[in-house]
Amino acid sequence: MQLPEQPVAGQPDTTIRRNADQLMAAINKIQVETPTSYRDNTPLPAVGLTPPVQQPGPPPMSQWAIDASGVLKAVSVASLPIGGALWIVGQIEPWALGIILGSPAVAALAVARLVAKVKDANQAAPQPVVQHFHGTVHHDERTVTSTTRGVIAKTQNRH
Known about the structure:
The chain is mainly alpha-helical. The chain contains three helices and two strands.
């Protein structure tokens, strides 16, 4: 029985070296022969004979143009009430305009005063206090009035 040759120290085995050379040659052959990308420059075929149709929505434009058109729409909508008010002012007599524009304010003030009077009427007549005492009771009904005035508070309680 014959043993395989033992490599000399520091020298690589010849079969390992041959296999590594064959592997590197195969990798180089694949890299040279196989392309990694391909560009097809042939034009795409048309689908049908119908010409293109504009799609719904905003027309194709830049982002700046889209933003500017939104601002222009907002400004134009905001100018309508101002223009309408100026037109009305030019068409109506000053007295009639004062009555038209002043009547909502007068009505609001009247309603506010009415609500304030109703509130005062509810608070003006408090419920009577009914107390029942049995036995010896000392009943003191003092009213304390407190007044605080000044930057440095000075409180005076009077009975």
